[in-house]
């Protein structure tokens, strides 16, 4: 029996070589670049193994089984711990000097010399077992013994990226020369580039936020949402749509493809003054990718890449996506600077 035709448009199946080929060409004989390439390839090796385990779901045990909590009291599932251990093992072989993971209180000291990796092994693990996206997000920082690489501004990143585990396994990454998107071939495990030099549309009418937090927001953010939700009859003059996946990686992947704006602001609840997302291994790599793709990422008013982390696991409000809309949010916050 012949295979059924693959549905799609005229651009379906367009590929621009493999990520491994791209990184090899980019690195050339430069030892520093080779170090970055080795770490990205290490992340992809681990992601390939992790994708198979996620796809198996409960057939091989309960991935969502609670096994403890991290330093900030967030519940840890079996998949959180297993993915953390997997990435530490593979990044050690790939040459990392230090690894900061959401699932460990302190950075893990390894034997590499030149680069450190900050990583959230499983972002959106609350989605595990529900068929909605989860992901891995990572940041690669230059390393030297004289300073803690994880307590320096995100603009020092050498590279950043993510892997989204959804109906396909997708990669977005940048080594500072634009953003590339790739998809893992389901038979070979090879990541094949499907789009180069990604550019996010400047304007958008699509919002990603947790609407259940609306009542807790400070007045400036509430006013922004009110003006959006009144639609074309209101001051914004157009209708807005909303998406919320419960996974920053999933939101990031969608926004890179079609634009949009995501925000998780600080709010009035105790412990939520700085939102819930981590600066070092969530906001920083997202911001790096945003700026490489013509988007923007701020804490509402200040560029994320300019912020200096106060601790390894510090949190930050985060607004990212289409540049014009990120700027609009900043204008609302600047008009009422005491509200955040």
From TrEMBL:
Pathway: Carbohydrate biosynthesis; Calvin cycle. Residues 39-195 form the Fructose-1-6-bisphosphatase class I N-terminal domain. Its cofactor is Mg(2+). It is found in: Cytoplasm. One of its GO terms (biological process) is gluconeogenesis. Binds 2 magnesium ions per subunit. It holds the Pfam family FBPase_C. One of its GO terms (cellular component) is cytosol. Residues 200-333 form the Fructose-1-6-bisphosphatase class 1 C-terminal domain. It is an enzyme of class 3 (hydrolase). Its main location: cytoplasm. Substrate binds at residue 210. Mg(2+) 1 binds at residues 102, 120, 122. PANTHER family: FRUCTOSE-1,6-BISPHOSPHATASE-RELATED, SEDOHEPTULOSE-1,7-BISPHOSPHATASE, CHLOROPLASTIC. Belongs to the FBPase class 1 family. This is Fructose-1,6-bisphosphatase class 1. It comes from Rhizobium lentis. The gene is fbp.
């Amino acid at each position: 029996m012949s295979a059924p035709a693959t549905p799609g448009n005229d651009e379906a199946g367009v590929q621009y070589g493999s990520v491994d080929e791209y990184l090899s060409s980019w690195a050339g004989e430069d030892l520093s670049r080779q170090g970055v390439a080795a770490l990205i390839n290490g992340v992809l090796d681990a992601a390939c193994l992790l994708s198979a385990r996620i796809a198996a779901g409960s057939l091989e045990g309960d991935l969502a089984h609670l096994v403890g909590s991290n330093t900030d009291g967030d519940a840890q599932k079996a998949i959180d711990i297993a993915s953390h251990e997997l990435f530490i093992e593979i990044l050690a072989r790939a040459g990392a000097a230090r690894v900061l993971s959401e699932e460990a209180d302190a950075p893990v000291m390894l034997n590499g010399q030149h680069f450190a990796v900050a990583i959230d092994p499983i972002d959106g693990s609350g989605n595990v077992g529900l068929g909605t996206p989860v992901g891995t997000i990572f940041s690669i920082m230059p390393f030297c013994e004289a300073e803690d690489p994880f307590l320096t501004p995100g603009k020092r990143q050498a590279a950043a990226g993510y892997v989204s585990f959804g109906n396909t396994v997708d990669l977005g990454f940048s080594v500072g020369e634009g953003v590339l998107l790739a998809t893992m071939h389901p038979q070979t495990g090879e990541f094949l580039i499907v789009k180069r030099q990604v550019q996010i549309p400047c304007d958008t009418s699509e919002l990603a936020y947790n609407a259940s937090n609306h009542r807790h927001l400070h007045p400036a953010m509430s006013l922004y949402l009110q003006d959006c939700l009144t639609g074309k009859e209101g001051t914004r003059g157009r209708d807005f749509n909303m998406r919320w996946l419960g996974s920053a990686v999933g939101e990031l992947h969608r926004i890179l493809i079609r634009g949009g704006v995501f925000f998780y602001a600080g709010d009035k609840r105790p412990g939520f003054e700085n939102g819930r997302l981590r600066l070092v291994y969530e906001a920083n790599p997202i911001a790096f990718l945003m700026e490489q793709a013509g988007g923007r990422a701020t804490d509402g008013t200040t560029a994320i890449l300019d912020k200096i982390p106060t601790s390894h696991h510090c949190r930050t409000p985060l607004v990212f996506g289409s540049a014009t809309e990120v700027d609009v949010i900043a204008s609302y916050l600047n008009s009422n600077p005491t509200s955040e």
